[in-house]
């Protein structure tokens, strides 16, 4: 929290750190981060309430000719159902996976967008714990799907590529094991966490940097650069919005791809 | 100015890869709750709405197709009926014409028969009247001639045979004369 301290005449610039994304807890109030119930958890719960509230109220009295809200909600649902579910998993099996993909996509999307809303201003998935939690759930899901559909043979199907000459197997099999069972959940979670954290750090950097340049530095040129930083941060804000939506889409898309791979493990 | 050492010193914060276990728990539990609600309530509601719309649209199309087919059938029926009505009308007209012609012909025949009958009757009457006139004339003329002749020859010719022969001869001559006159 040093970056938000009042300026003094000799104050040096202190760039924001990871610790600055770890705000004091909400319960107990202002307790040290990691000891209680924090802002990130409040936002996770808020996102669940908002998603359930919006989609339940939008479809409460479904009309054959939908109103604006129902149309919006149905388009959002249809995007996940057809754009991610049906296109990736395939016509035959996708229906039972739509709820998981729907929940995953909107859960990640809304929590990402929290990073762009003033006062909330913290993408929940910039905290590694949340990203790990989601990746573990998905990881467990697709492995369970594979074992359920192919039995214990699934692990062989998943790591022994077909159509590859035998002599290359000693190289391929360890690679596939590392790629599918170790790296996959890490990349799945860290991709989301890193992009969200980077976006959040840029916001903090622009805010503290601009403040330092305008309030602390005495040269007029530095003050002007501070204003330019604020102007630039608006462009960054829109880039961040794009990345927030894109990462939610990528996360849900990868979920669908992993499930599809587990369902059709014997097809390739 | 800003020194690099200061930046480095301040930048060293918590490790971003180390998770807060409570956040893992809250996120996982929260997602589980969300997934439960989506599976149980939200997804079925959207699927139902989608299915209802599909049914309604398909039903509407089917209804429209049925109505179209019915309209076509009715049209065909009307056309057939119209054609039948025309045929009937034509037949009736034809029949009426034939009947009219027949009636006319019958009337003509009847009129002709009637006129023939009347003519024949008239002929017959005239003939019978002529015969009666001839008969009565013959008797009268015979008597008159006989009485005239007897008066002329003064009872010399009292003999009946001769008298009647003379009369017959005379009448025959008279007839011949008349026939010759009629044939002229």
SSE topology sketch:
The complex is a heterodimer of chains A (268) and B (184).
Chain A (H helix, E strand, L loop, with lengths): L17 H4 L17 H20 L9 H22 L8 H16 L14 H23 L2 H7 L9 H48 L3 H44 L5
Chain B lengths: L3 H8 L9 H133 L6 H24 L1
Helix pairs in contact in B: 2-3
Task: Report on this structure.
The complex is a heterodimer of chains A (about 270) and B (about 180). Helix content of chain A is about 70%, strand content about 0%. Chain A is mostly helical. Chain A starts with 17 loop residues before the first helix and ends in a 5-residue tail after the last helix. The mean pLDDT of chain A is about 90. With about 180 residues, chain B is an all-alpha fold. The longest helix of chain B is centred in the middle third of the chain and has 133 residues, at about 20-155. The model of chain B has no long low-confidence stretch (mean pLDDT about 85). At the A-B interface, α1, α2, α3, α4 and α5 of A face α1 and α2 of B.
What features would you highlight for this structure?
heterodimer; A: 268 residues; mainly alpha; 8 helices; 0% strand; B: 184 residues; 3 helices
- Main pleated-sheet profile of chain B: none
How helix-rich are the residues of chain A, as a percent range?
Answer: 55-70%
Strand residues, percent of chain A: under 5%
| Poorly predicted regions of chain B | none
What is the 3D form of chain B?
rod-shaped
Count all strands of chain A and give the number.
0
Count of separate DSSP helical elements of chain A: 8
| Quaternary status | heterodimer
What's the order of the H and E elements of chain A?
A: HHHHHHHH
Radius of gyration of chain A: 23 Å
* Structural class assignment of chain B: mainly alpha
Into which percentage range does the β-strand content of chain B fall?
A: under 5%
Rounded mean pLDDT score of chain B: 84
What overall form of chain A do the CA principal axes indicate? globular
Based on secondary structure, the structural category of chain A is mainly alpha
Helicity range of chain B: over 70%
Q: What's the N-to-C terminus distance of chain B?
A: 172 Å
Low-confidence stretches of chain A: none
Enumerate how many helices of chain B there are, as a single number.
3
What average pLDDT do the residues of chain A reach? Answer: 88
């Amino acid at each position: 929290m040093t970056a938000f301290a009042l300026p003094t005449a000799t104050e040096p610039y202190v760039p924001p750190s990871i610790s600055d994304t770890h705000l004091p807890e909400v319960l107990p109030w202002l307790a040290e981060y990691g000891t209680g119930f924090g802002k990130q958890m409040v936002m996770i719960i808020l996102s669940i309430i908002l998603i359930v509230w919006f989609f339940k109220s939008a479809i409460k009295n479904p009309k054959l000719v939908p109103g604006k809200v129902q149309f919006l909600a149905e388009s959002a649902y249809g995007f996940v159902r057809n754009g991610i579910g049906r296109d990736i998993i395939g016509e035959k099996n996708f229906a039972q996976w739509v709820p998981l993909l729907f929940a995953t996509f909107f859960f990640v999307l809304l929590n990402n967008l929290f990073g762009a809303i003033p006062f909330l201003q913290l993408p929940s998935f910039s905290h590694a714990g949340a990203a790990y939690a989601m990746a573990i759930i998905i990881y467990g899901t697709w492995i369970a799907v594979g074992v359920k559909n192919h039995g214990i043979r699934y692990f062989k199907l998943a790591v022994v590529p077909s159509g590859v000459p035998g002599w290359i197997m000693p190289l391929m099999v360890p690679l596939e094991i590392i790629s599918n069972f170790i790296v996959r959940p890490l990349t799945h979670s860290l991709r989301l966490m890193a992009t969200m954290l980077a976006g959040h750090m840029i916001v903090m950097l622009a805010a503290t940097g601009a403040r330092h340049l305008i309030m602390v530095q005495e040269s007029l040129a530095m003050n002007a650069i501070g204003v330019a930083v604020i102007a630039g941060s608006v462009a960054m804000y829109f880039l961040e919005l794009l990345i927030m939506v894109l990462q939610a889409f990528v996360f849900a898309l990868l979920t669908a791809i992993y499930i599809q791979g587990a369902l059709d493990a014997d097809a390739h | 100015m800003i020194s690099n050492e200061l930046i480095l010193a301040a930048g060293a914060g918590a490790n971003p890869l180390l998770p807060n276990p409570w956040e893992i728990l809250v996120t996982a539990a929260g997602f589980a709750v969300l997934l439960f609600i989506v599976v149980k309530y939200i997804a079925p509601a959207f699927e139902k709405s989608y299915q209802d719309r599909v049914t309604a649209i398909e039903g509407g199309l089917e209804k429209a197709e049925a109505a179209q087919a019915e309209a076509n059938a009715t049209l065909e029926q009307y056309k057939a009926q119209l054609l039948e009505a025309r045929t009937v009308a034509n037949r009736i007209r034809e029949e009426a014409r034939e009947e009219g012609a027949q009636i006319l012909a019958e009337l003509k025949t009847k009129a002709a028969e009637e006129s023939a009958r009347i003519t024949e009757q008239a002929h017959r009457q005239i003939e019978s009247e002529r015969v009666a006139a001839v008969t009565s004339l013959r008797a009268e003329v015979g008597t008159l001639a006989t009485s005239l002749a007897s008066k002329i020859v003064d009872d010399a010719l009292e003999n009946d045979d001769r008298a009647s022969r003379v009369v017959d001869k005379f009448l025959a001559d008279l007839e011949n004369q008349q026939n010759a006159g009629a044939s002229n």
